Amino acid sequence: VATSMALVASTLTFQPAEAAKKPKLSKTKATLKVGQTLKLTVKNAKKKAKVSWKTSKKSVAKITKKTTKGKAYAKIKAVKKGSAKITATYKAGKTKKKMYCKITVKKKILL
User: How far is Cα of residue 13 from the mean position of the Cα atoms in its chain?
Assistant: First the structure.
């Protein structure tokens, strides 16, 4: 009986439950020219999650439009040459996560 139990146990394979995908930003860094815009989205966000958006330098990269629930996104506009960090703070139940995107703004080249 013991050998048959061992045989049955060895043929069973356990598949770990697929881990829930963690929320993340669509980009972690981007380079824009003055005047250009970029749409940052939160991937794998839960429907009831809330996201708050912040920029480290409004004079360089400005958040022009944003949604905070569901398919959360922010539109970033390049204002002047420099760099800024966009922070998205994700909250869903007990889960809280900060995600970052480094924005580098270059001068617009005039022809």
Answer: 34
